C-alpha cells in the first residue's frame, strides 16, 4: 500500500480537502461499527478535514453524535456533517477560532444544548508553519502556534470539563515531532511537546473522577495541513512525505480513526496519561 502524491501546495492553512491530489480516505467501507460509542456525544476540534474528519466518521459509525469545530472551511465542514448524518447520527458544525476562549465556551455550550450532554472531547485543531532557521520565526508566527495548538486545547477542555463525568474521555492529537523533534518545525514541535505535558498532567488530575486523558501522536499523514505547510516552502517535500519512515510512505487519515475509537471507548478503561504512536514504524523514546 502506497500513496502516489505529486508535488503540490495550498495557499492557506489549514487547507481544504477537495483540492488534494489524491483525495484522502477518512474511513474504509469495510470498517464495521459495533456500537462501542453508542449514545455518546463527542466534540472534535479541527473536525472538518484530515485526522479530525476521520475521528468524526469512525465515532459516528460506532454510534456517537458528533460536533465538529472548524475555522472557515465551510464546504469541508458541510461534507463532514453530511457523512456523519449518513451514518444515522446527529452532526453539528461550529465555525470559529479556538484561539479565543469565548468561542470555545460557546462551542461547548452549543454542543451540550444540541446533544443533551458531552462525553468525549478530541483536541485536534492545529497549525504548522515550516521555518528552516529559528531567527526567521516572527513573534506573530510563534504566538500563532501557541494560541492555536496549546491555548486552544486548554480553552476547549476547560469549557468541557464541567459537563464530563465518570467514563468520559479527552483525547489530544499530538505528533511524532513532540518526541523526535523536527529541525524545520521548531515552533510546531514545541507546541506538540506542550500538549503532551498537558495530557499527562491532566490525566493525573482527573483520574479519581474517572475521566481518562490520552493522546495520539501521528507520523506523516495525508491531510490538507501538509500541502498548506510543507508545500508552501517546497511542493516536492509534500511528494516525499513519509518516505523516511520504515514503511516508506505517508499514512491515510483512516489509519488513525480506530485509535481515537479505542481511546474514547470502554476498551481503554484502564488507559490514561498514555500516547498511541501511529507513525509508520518510527521508534520513539519517551
Describe this structure in words.
The protein is of the alpha/beta class and about 290 residues long. It has a single domain (about 40-280), classed as Rossmann fold. About 35% of the residues lie in helices and about 15% in strands. Strand 1, helix 1 and strand 2 form a beta-alpha-beta unit. Helix 1 (about 50-60) crosses helix 9 (about 255-265). It is globular, with a radius of gyration of 17 Å. The relative contact order is 0.18. The mean pLDDT is about 95.
Which key features would you list for this structure?
alpha/beta; Rossmann fold; seven-stranded parallel β-sheet; 9 helices; 286 residues; single chain
Secondary structure elements and their pairing?
Elements: E1 41-45, H1 50-61, E2 65-70, H2 74-86, E3 91-95, H3 101-115, E4 120-123, H4 139-160, E5 169-173, H5 177-180, H6 186-206, E6 212-218, H7 230-233, H8 235-239, H9 254-264, E7 275-278
Parallel strand pairs: 1-2, 1-4, 2-3, 4-5, 5-6, 6-7
Helix pairs in contact: 1-2, 1-9, 3-4, 4-6
Concise overview:
The chain has helices at residues 50-61, 74-86, 101-115, 139-160, 177-180, 186-206, 230-233, 235-239, 254-264; strands at residues 41-45, 65-70, 91-95, 120-123, 169-173, 212-218, 275-278.
